[in-house]
Specification:
Length: 292
Amino acid sequence: MLRDKRARTVPATLLITPSTVAGPDRPLLGPVSSELSEILAQHVRVTDIHDERSFYQAFADHLGTARRSIWIWAPWTTDRVKSLLPVLTDAAARGVKVTLFVRDPGDALQRKPKHQKYLADLRAALHTVVEINMMHQKIVIIDEETVLLGSLNSLSQSWTREVMLTVRGAHFAQKLLEHEHADQFAAPPRCGVCDGTKVDLRRRRSDDWYWRCYSDACPRWTPGGRSAWTQAAIGATSPKPSNRQRSPSESAASSQGATRPAGPPPPQRRPAGNRAPRSASGPSEATGEPRP
Ligand SMILES: [Zn+2]
């Protein structure tokens, strides 16, 4: 068939070019090869399954060999940080962009001073740290190609039984990053009122994601957070300049009308040491499952 020119050959390497390769580096393919390439790009391989015992060596290996980026969704930062901080610091120091998503300090476990200290250590070493209200995903994505996904909280696991899959596939990794709005959420704004960085990411019942200042030093802070400074997190534009100049009463009125989350008021931020209200997320938030 080849001799009769009724068949053509396409090197397999051209067909499995990751979807993230763009522009002049992307091989030119005909219509049939393009379709085949698209199908192959969606192919994923589960290359490993780890439990809580074997995970951490594999995790350290992945972190140690990352070349471009490390994305981590890990709700809590506890004693596990001690052993992982050096390898994460090394990665950041060699130019790997490390982005970490964790729970905000509205969570009783995460706001403990010890855990906030670990978070501060991570902030000092990593490219970006983002606090998300009620976050519960457990994901690591290396170089937009390798995904570690399962039940294990990578920065806080201590004694629970877990499973983590290692999944390879650039198309899948990209899809997961898009699903988690990774790029948009990796750029938290400063508060438009106090200019502080104590801004967490929240989700309304209507599905809208928004940033909210939780600093109790912010002029807009109230115990219930109802008049706190907020900004849309997806499709966000820069905060209106007038935001800073409004009187507190005008700002509060505007916030009540335009940006107050639907549904019950969000958890209050209380000083460390006070007992936290039981969250609507059920028992997993601050009780059994994630405890270090
Ligand atoms: Zn503020």
